[in-house]
Amino acid sequence: MAGHNDNFINRERMLRDFTDIISIDSPSLKERKMAAALRAKLESEGFAVYEDGAGEITGGECGNLIAVLPASDGLNSTECGRDACVSEGGGERGDGAGGGCGALPVVALLAHMDTVGPCENKRWTVEGDIIRSDGNTILGGDDAAGIVATLEIARRVKEDNIRHGGILIIYTIAEEIGLDGAKNLDHALIRSALGGDAAKAYKSVGKDNSNATESDGDDGAVANGDSGAVGGGFPQFCFVFDSGGPPGSVVNRAPSHTDIIITVKGAAAHAGIAPEKGINAIATLSDAIAHMPLGRIDEETTANIGIIRGGDARNVVCESATAEGEARSQNKQSLITQVAAMKSCVADACERRGATFEFKEITSYNAFSLTDNDLVIKLLTAAAKNRGSVLKLVPTGGGSDANILNAMGIPAANLPIGMYEVHSTREYTNLRETSETVELVVEAFRLLASQFS
Ligand SMILES: [Zn+2]
């Protein structure tokens, strides 16, 4: 939605960040250079930066970056033994009267560091607010625009003196190859980083309650074995910056996703001399697929076979053939039903033709759904209203790191950041729109702070 208050604050600063980022090649699992550059940017903004072990697990050059900016007043919601004083502290105005400590909750901002290819030696043009690939590579606005948004939000919150709880920035690796960085995010490191944050914050503001901090471990309410520091503590919610299109909406629903690999085994035979001795795996697999419910199954469910392979020679009855596909649904039960239906088509075809099969199901990620009752949606809706627009809640058929964060128990809403034609050499980013999303989230921070004043 254009037309409302859209003065573009700090255009030069955001453009510099953006071009710094896209000038680095950062294909999935080769994010080391990007991570080093982003670490420097985060540290210069006052973040303590950690790297987890996701790189070793996924075979990448580096892990996810986990960065913590201490709460502005040194209070940390982990101090009172709750993850979230805002929701427990007393309804609309969690000012502590309801029993909370008055600390603001930890808020997470997330973007991914990797890009799809081709991404080597990117060149681009800047026309007004539009940065566009020269057509030989992708631009990398997916997800450079998201990273720029996180940096700019942190700066704006500080510059505007908005009171805030701990700000956790997560930059993931390997998002584009199956959310692999987020899937291997080190929860314990996040907890201990936030615990360390609390301890440090107390020191940095010179409050004389180091004893209280130390003894806080006693209650053990959310004790975290991995960190000897303060109690546990997790972000109350997360803004993910990895959705396409213009600002004005938020992705609040995404499907569960199961990958499927089918292998059919028949029997090889000479196609000219003894075809009756063979069982054709290609024909059997085709038979199975021809009977499968595919495409849009219902409003919430889709299914596809996208790859088929098999056979070695024209004159041999094919012995083995493989198909790969997927199914997605907003509804867990519908997904189970759909995958079972696909499997029974394979079983039936194999029975008809005397073949055998293997049917592998791999859960890629789980669905999520956020509503007006979730604080992150409430804040964004109110922030949009304050800025003169109406926030639209939109479902998506795709998955993102938001699916993984939601599965971790951190409500995560995916925001559009003005990126277009992503995963193509026509990719461009409208940085003014990125900026509008920044303003929306800064307003959400303002509203969150006002709930505690
Ligand atoms: Zn992305």
How do the helices and strands line up, and which of them pair or pack?
Layout: H1 11-22, H2 32-44, E1 48-51, H3 54-58, E2 65-69, H4 85-88, E3 107-112, E4 124-127, E5 130-133, H5 141-159, E6 167-172, H6 180-183, H7 187-204, H8 210-215, E7 237-243, E8 249-254, E9 256-265, E10 269-270, H9 281-291, E11 295-298, E12 301-310, E13 316-317, E14 320-329, H10 332-353, E15 356-365, E16 368-369, H11 375-386, E17 392-395, H12 401-407, E18 412-416, E19 419-420, E20 428-430, H13 431-450
Parallel strand pairs: 3-6, 3-7, 7-18, 8-17
Antiparallel strand pairs: 1-2, 2-6, 4-5, 5-20, 8-16, 9-14, 9-15, 10-13, 11-12, 12-14, 19-20
Helix pairs in contact: 1-5, 5-13, 9-10, 11-13
The protein binds zinc ion.
Zinc ion binds near residues 112, 142, 143, 175 and 242.
What does this structure look like?
This protein is α+β, with helices and mostly antiparallel strands. It has 2 domains: about 10-255 and about 365-450, Zn peptidases (Aminopeptidase); about 260-365, Alpha-Beta Plaits, CATH 3.30.70. The chain is about 35% helix and about 25% strand. It has helices at about 10-20, 30-45, 55-60, 85-90, 140-160, 180-185, 185-205, 210-215, 280-290, 330-355, 375-385, 400-405, 430-450, and strands spanning about 50, 65-70, 105-110, 125, 130-135, 165-170, 235-245, 250-255, 255-265, 270, 295-300, 300-310, 315, 320-330, 355-365, 370, 390-395, 410-415, 420, 430. A 6-stranded mixed sheet has the order 1-2-6-3-7-18, sandwiched between helices. Helix 1 packs antiparallel against helix 5. The longest helix has 22 residues, at about 330-355. Mean pLDDT is about 85; it is low at about 1-5, about 80-100 and about 195-230. Zinc ion binds next to helix 5.
